[in-house]
Amino acid sequence: MARLDVTEVFHGISYPGHLHTQDSLHHALKFPFQDTDVLIVSYPKSGTTWMQEIVTLISSRGDPHLSQSSPNWTRAPWLEQYYCADLLKSSTSTPRVLTTHLPHDLLGPALQESKARIIYVSRNPKDVLVSFYHFHKMANFLPDPGSFPEFLHQFLEGTLHFGSWFDHIKGWTSQAAALNLFFLYTYNFTNLVSSFLQRPLLEHELNNCVKHCSFSCMKDNKMINYSLIPDEILDHSKGCFMRKGEIGDWKNMFTGEQNRYFDTVFKSKMQDCILKLVWEK
Ligand code: A3P
After folding, report:
1. Which atom of ligand 1 is nearest to the CA of 244?
2. Which one of 46, 76, 91, 254 has the fewest CB atoms closer than 10 angstroms to its CB?
3. Is position 65 annotated as part of the catalytic site?
4. In terms of DSSP H, where are the helices of the chain?
5. How far apart are CA 173 and CA 161, in angstroms?
6. CA of 127, closest atom in ligand 1
7. Rounded Cα gap, residues 214 and 216, in angstroms
8. Looking at the domain assignment, is residue 275 inside a domain?
9. CATH of the domain at 222
10. Is the pTM higher than 0.90?
11. How much of the chain, in percent, has pLDDT values that exceed 90?
């Protein structure tokens, strides 16, 4: 299937143009946040979809009706994608749940003075890279990933779509004290999110949330597993969005040499950063 060659470059970062336009990206930068908003922030392939499901289920106190009847991009739309503004006009849900992959230096000004609750979802970058590589193979709206060594190099250089993982995580976490921001690394954390959102749950409600946002449930839920997206955009014959959902899968892909290259770049770029990342099970 032919790739959709539509790249939109915005402030030096490339974005897939079938969903991002100059207008929608500019609109995101001036977005009028409300203090009740919940904003899920992540670099792609860090567990964004998982968090969209967790927040939906916490809001519904573990009742899966909404998460099984409405696609994730309608209940937690990406701020920077073209359909977001219209969708919000017709939405009455409170709190509004929004998602973004934008870096802090672009979105920070719109969030200044805002009390919106921000959940930053992170994942160790070796698993992000492997997940992103496989996703590029099936996502026709992204460039051909080429070979794994080439892709790894581009990831470390920060030249892939959505920009540099290093800049993204450092930009957002360095501003945590100034924002109502909660930093999470992918783990079992549903109860922490419900505390942050000030939505305490009864034990059975929490258990329902955990059950419905498990990898196996999400893999079978067409409202969250992206099977509704047509093959021209997401070629389902080349892979699955809910691929493995494992911590440490990078070990199946990296050679010893690639691992040393990655570690050297990671060390030099992250030397001032004291982040807790989970690299293996
Ligand atoms: P893999 O490709 O490693 O399987 P995003 O939503 O940010 O694009 O991230 C997608 C990644 O999150 C995929 O990783 C996907 O399988 C994983 N994921 C989604 N839901 C998950 C869940 N409930 N448990 C574990 N991993 C999950």
Report:
1. 4
2. 91
3. no
4. 22-29, 48-59, 72-75, 84-89, 104-111, 125-138, 148-157, 165-173, 190-196, 203-212, 215-220, 256-269
5. 21
6. 3
7. 6
8. no
9. 3.40.50.300
10. yes
11. 87
Q: Does 245 contact ligand 1 (Cβ within 6 A)?
A: yes
Q: Domain residues for 90?
A: 19-269
Q: Is 41 within a domain?
A: yes
Is 243 a domain residue?
Answer: yes
- CB 152, CB 73: distance < 8 Å: no
Q: What would the pLDDT profile of 236-248 be if each residue is shown by its tens digit? A: 999 999 999 999 9
**What ipTM score was computed for the predicted complex, to two decimals?**
0.99
> Is residue 243 within 8 Å of 218, Cβ to Cβ?
no
225 in contact with ligand 1, CB cutoff 6 A = no
Q: What is the pLDDT of residues 86-114, one digit of tens each?
A: 999 988 888 999 999 999 999 999 999 89
The SS3 call for residue 99 is strand
What's the chain's length in residues?
281
Q: Which amino acid is at 3?
A: R
- Residue 224 Cα to ligand 1 midpoint, Å, equals 11
Does 13 fall in a domain? no
Please state whether 36 falls in left (phi above 0), alpha (psi between -120 and 50) or beta. Answer: alpha
> Which residue reads 């904003």 in tokens?
39
Ligand 1 centre from 112 Cα, in Å? 30
Q: Tell me phi and psi for residue 100, to 5 degrees.
A: -150, 150
Identify the active-site residue in 20, 101, 168, 212. Answer: 101
For atom 27 of ligand 1, the residue with the nearest CA is 245
CA torsion, ordered 5, 162, 281, 218, to nearest 10 deg: -60
What is the number of domains present in the chain? 1
